[in-house]
Amino acid sequence: MTRKWLSLIPISALAIMASTGLASAQSMDQIMAGAKSEGTLTVIALPHDWCGYGAVIDAFKAKYGLAVNELNPDAGSGDEVEAIKANKGNTGPQAPDVIDVGLSFGPQARADGLLQPYKVSTWDTIPQSAKDGDGYWYGDYYGVLAFEVNTDIVKKVPTDWADLQGSDYKNSIALAGDPRTSNQAIQGVFASGLSAAGGDVSKAGDAGLKFFADLNKAGNFVPTIGKAASLAQGATPIILRWDYNALADRDTLKGNPNVQVVVPKTGVVAGVYIQAISAYAPHPNAAKLWMEYLYSDEGQLGWLKGYCHPIRFNDLASNNKIPADMMSALPPAANYAKAVFPTLDQQAQAKGVITKQWDSVVGANVH
After folding, report:
1. DSSP state of 6
2. Do 95 and 278 meet the contact criterion of CB atoms below 8 Å apart?
3. What pLDDT is attached to residue 261?
4. Most buried one in 22, 90, 254, 305, CB count within 10 A?
5. Domain 143-269+335-362 maps to which CATH number in 2.60.120.280, 3.30.450.20, 3.40.190.10, 3.30.450.70?
6. What would the CATH number be for the domain defined by 13-142+271-328?
């Protein structure tokens, strides 16, 4: 996928040193020199069609001349954290330098000593509610849970969660991950529960499990991880996934089949993902340089090009940094008006309920 990149505004060493004491030990020049010496950045769970990551990675490599070692693109957030744990003493190619995980995974990873702090030079433009005060993790982008529908097969397009229980959708509905480990899948269950519980966040975890148990009993749920290929083949003609992934699939498939992306009428859950650097990163300078790139105007607009709302979206918009064509490519802003941003505590509570009780309540082995 070809992308036209905007020129990166130079990040001065002074700006980085002024941002926090954590970053003051190194200037941008020192970080770049250290990264060049390391030569490689190891990432994990970054599919090229997720958030425009393919183009973002290519632009980073071209700009700084580093190799990017890409581990397990289809891994879930839980898998990423486990990869750090499993490679604590390993400086080889299986040890990730950085992770991109769901918001609820950040605090626990910090508590477990798996992350190291670093505050990027644009730190002050990241909303306070979407970052760890000490710089151990920070929001990168967000989206909402949507229905990705193959309309060549599904003639009656669902518009809300309750519709999915209907007999029109036998053997049709899939999650985009395993709800025992994947943040995207966990949030899909949570969103269904939020709708079923009439917007009561405190009941969304349990209500979501019941929703999927009923969906499974009705024969509507397909225990296969939904992807663009399974959507196109008709194995999973409806996938519950982040809007940006669904929109990217729509572009990639180019009408074969026709894809409609639906933001549901209720249970609109916005999910924030976060970036963090492994405490055991074999390439710590490359990791810091990656973060500086991702949180620069160029990196943030790269995510927006991939249909993700970057965490600095409001800052970019207020400073007229967002090209009109990028805005026009997104669904109407009104579709997102009902979005709920669950707090960390709310997410943690729901995550615990969903991951621990999925097997006993739903009983579907997603693979």
Report:
1. P
2. yes
3. 93
4. 305
5. 3.40.190.10
6. 3.40.190.10
